[in-house]
Design goal:
Low-confidence stretches: 57-68
Helix content: 25-40%
Shape: elongated
Strand order of the largest sheet: 1-2-3-4-5-6-7-8
Oligomer: single chain
Distance between the termini: 50 Å
Order of helices and strands: HEHHEEEEEEE
Amino acid sequence: MKRLLTPAFTLVLSLLIFYCAASLPNQKRIIGTWKVLKVEPYNIPSMPVQHNENAQKARVNANTDTTTHSAPVEKSKAEQMLDRFIQSELRSTLTVNADKTATKEFQGKTIHATWKLKNKGNRLLIDSKESGKKMTMDIQHINDTSAVVIETFPLGQLKVTYKKVKK
């Protein structure tokens, strides 16, 4: 019986070490302070793609302080809310700590949360302590200096590009 338990225990231990080692790179990379560089609508079901591109161009023009005027387009409430949300995201900072806590700062507010990685380290789940709301970020690309994630919100999904500003 001991002859069977020893190899079985060794096999289980080696699989556990392999699984932990596979998810550690993203876990180590995600820790730090991240500044949003770019926000793009990714999967917004109620908005046509062409209008999203025009809205993105208008945001780029607003960020570069150049004024271009086009024909006035009346936006729906959903589009206005999306524009405000994107502008808020562009001014936010996300800090992910090694102790599984995170803070997001935007517009003078700070949201405290906990986080964990799922899906082999490719999905970041954030749970807000104050509101109880949960947020999902699917990691498309991450390295030591930048990350591209797909964030899921009530309006749909946004593709957000982050730059690490502090380890």
